[in-house]
What does this fold into?
Amino acid sequence: MQQMVMINTRPQDAYRKQDVLTAGPVDLIVMLYDALKKNIVLGKRGIEKKDVPGAHKCLMKAQMILTELINSLDMNYEISDELLNLYEFALKSIADANLHKDTEPLDPIIEMVDSIRDAWKQISGMNRGQIQLGEERA
It folds into this structure.
């Protein structure tokens, strides 16, 4: 009997996988923020469209991403305490939005995620600049 092997035929998936495998630590954090925002926005749309299962699924993914961000904090740095407070606030807001199917708590979280993501994106760009400068000197 032949075994059927499923091959991923979506080029976007292969590209995304390669992107993750070759990303540096800061780039991975930016990717997590991108996925976090995407899931919050999709959850909000789901609530607006009365798609309760879809909204729930996306908001639960957002909570899992926040949990991963919390687990990745290095508490030896002062900024980690501040990020922890923001992440816990976001977790509570998303859980409240999911429980009550209310989009209102999500808007400030989307803004917060954008702001923090932009800061990480700048750090990522600075790291690339340093690497390029270092390579030019070699």
